[in-house]
Design brief:
Blueprint (H helix, E strand, L loop, with lengths): L1 E6 L3 H10 L7 E4 L8 H4 L13 E5 L12 E5 L18 H10 L7 H11 E3 L13 E3 L7 H13 L14 E4 L4 E2 L2 E2 L3 H7 L5 E4 L2 E9 L2 E9 L5 E12 L2 H11 L2 E2 L1 H6 L6 E2 L11 E9 L11 H14 L9 E7 L10 E6 L16 E8 L7 E3 L10 E3 L6 H18 L2 H4 L2 E6 L7 H11 L1 E2 L29 E3 L14 H16 L7
Parallel strand pairs: 1-2, 1-13, 2-10, 5-6, 13-24, 14-15
Antiparallel strand pairs: 3-4, 7-17, 8-9, 11-12, 12-13, 16-19, 16-22, 16-23, 17-18, 18-19, 20-21
């Protein structure tokens, strides 16, 4: 028996387990389907290039995307302690104040305005350069400047300024617009994932962490969640962990709706067709899926200016020695070293495009390297997509992947802004600060120029940015899944606390907002009434 059972050891789950176990009189269990974060490539920042494939991810593929050339796009999601925070590119951005104000005003989520949530951002952060109203120091999560940014990344920042995008030393401050080197979730040249929270809680007798455990169902008795059924490793034997106070689902925008539906919480007609008894008919479970749709532009360089040169054995050895002896050099790079927030629609009140500059080519799974072996990548996405999709069950088998359909580019405005991002990427890369490094544009290539050609390229080559949200949406209307206290409607003792509760995607990467949600969620849970008798 436990007081709290947290399902999912990703970014949100690690924060929740650590914060809830601060109180010595409660017992907390954290269940994670993947392994412990022991892989050394997790902790070396440049190891990101190995993280979008392999054994530490859920190797999902999307349903055919009917507005994106009917492609079944690979869809990597973390399957390891720390979840996405253990495999992502460590880019640390929070989103815009207006994002959270819209949660509060348009969706009725009282307590979630920017003024309300900023303290939780500060609480989580240990920033090595910034302090004051917008930043924290001494929190569990290390946030820092890159130790050894490349000259190529610095040239990108200069090129943006040549094009008219102003320099911004802090994307998480008063203004998001501008260009610069990203701050990253690192501490002393190592990845700082949400597992940092668990390390601080290590040794507490009231905190239990089980990895390699697949949750199969939330057990519900008399409209109350009483715990979680799960399987260890490859065993078919079902175990049960009872939650005396609350069961908390923190399995992300794909895993959380899947587990709710397996437990009989979701669209009633769909569950009945799969033979799942309906415990609570909630039509919104698995709806409202949206994600940033990424467009890559890849360049072949005229010399060994990018991290690609370290793929050669002797340079790889040199980089490893520099890291081990001096804690600097290319191994400390997150690959996605620089970026910008800017406007695709000049009528937008805030930036609506985000750019990532990768000092390498062929970095992520499914993206081929350039012919010369030395390249760089510029990618962009529309920050506030209007298209909405679904996560649905394929069967009642917990081991089977759900059907994931973000429905990319269903709204024509998403395609329009995606193409604006492509055009702006090319304009930045054509500036003199970068032009001297570039041999040619490898992808899309010079033959792709017209609006129609750019649209076709976006449909044919766009991909996920690994930012799914919204499938257990927070709100006060009948279509919402959780209320502003993150309680599942119609089921006592059950909450969802992760990126799936976002009513609308933040204008940024999603790791930092997920940590904020968990910080706030943990505080709300700890303030709840005593355990149910």
């Amino acid at each position: 028996m436990y007081d709290y059972v947290v399902v999912g050891g990703g970014a949100a789950g690690c924060v929740l387990a650590a914060r809830l176990s601060n109180s010595p009189d409660v017992r907390v269990l954290l269940l994670e389907a993947g392994p412990v974060d022991k892989d050394p490539y997790i902790h070396m920042p440049v190891g990101f290039y190995k993280m979008t494939s392999g054994p530490l991810i859920w190797s999902y593929r999307l349903a055919p995307q009917r507005h994106a050339a009917d492609r079944e796009i690979p869809y990597a999601q973390g399957r390891v302690l720390g979840g996405g925070s253990s495999i992502n590119a460590m880019v640390f951005t929070r989103g815009q104040a207006q994002d959270f104000d819209r949660w509060a005003k348009e969706f009725g989520c009282a307590g979630w305005s920017f003024e309300d949530i900023l303290p939780y951002y500060r609480k989580s952060e240990d920033n090595n350069r910034l302090a004051g109203a917008y930043h924290g120091n001494g929190g569990p999560l290390g946030v820092s400047d890159l130790i050894s940014p490349t000259n190529l990344a610095r040239a990108f920042v200069l090129a943006c300024q040549e094009m008219g995008i102003p320099y911004n030393p802090d994307f998480n401050g008063r203004e998001q617009a501008g260009c610069g080197l990203y701050q990253v979730s690192q501490r002393n040249g190592r990845r700082s994932s949400a597992v940092e929270y668990l390390r601080q809680a290590r040794g507490r007798p009231n905190l239990t962490v089980h990895t390699g455990c697949l949750a199969t169902r939330i057990r519900i008795e008399n409209h109350r969640a009483v715990g979680v059924e799960y399987r260890r490793g490859n065993s078919n034997r079902t175990e049960f962990a009872r939650a005396e106070r609350e069961t908390i689902v923190a399995s992300g925008a794909i895993g959380s709706p899947k587990l709710l539906m397996l437990s009989g919480i979701g669209p009633g007609d769909e569950l009945k067709r799969l033979g799942i008894p309906v415990e609570q008919d909630l039509a919104g479970v698995g709806r409202n899926l949206h994600d940033h749709y990424d467009i890559d532009v890849i360049y072949d360089l005229n010399g060994p200016y990018s991290l690609d040169k370290y793929k050669k054995p002797h340079w790889m050895l040199w980089a490893g020695l520099e890291y081990k002896l001096f804690n600097k050099g290319p191994v400390t790079s997150n690959v996605v070293e620089a970026g910008a927030f800017w406007y695709g629609d000049r009528g937008s009140p805030t930036p609506d495009l985000q750019f990532h500059f990768l000092v390498g080519a062929g970095v992520e799974a499914g993206i081929a390297p350039v012919p010369s072996g030395s390249g760089c990548t510029m990618n962009s996405y529309f920050l506030r997509p209007r298209s909405r999709g679904t996560v649905t069950l394929r069967s009642a088998d917990p081991a089977e992947a759900p059907v994931i359909d973000p429905n990319y580019l269903a709204d024509p405005y998403d395609l329009k802004l995606s193409v604006e991002g492509l055009k702006t990427s090319r304009e930045i890369m054509a500036q003199s600060a970068l032009r001297r490094y570039i041999r040619c544009e490898h992808l899309p290539g010079p033959e792709v120029r017209t609006q129609a050609q750019c649209e076709e390229f976006a449909r044919q080559y766009g991909r996920t940015s690994y930012h799914p949200v919204g499938t257990c949406r927070m709100g006060i209307d009948n279509s919402s899944v959780v209320d502003p206290q993150l309680r599942v409607r119609g089921v006592d003792g059950l909450r969802v606390v992760d990126s799936s509760i976002m009513p609308m995607l933040t204008s940024s990467n999603t790791f930092a907002p997920t940590v904020m949600i968990a910080e706030k969620g943990a505080e709300m849970i700890a303030a709840k009434e005593p355990k149910h008798e």
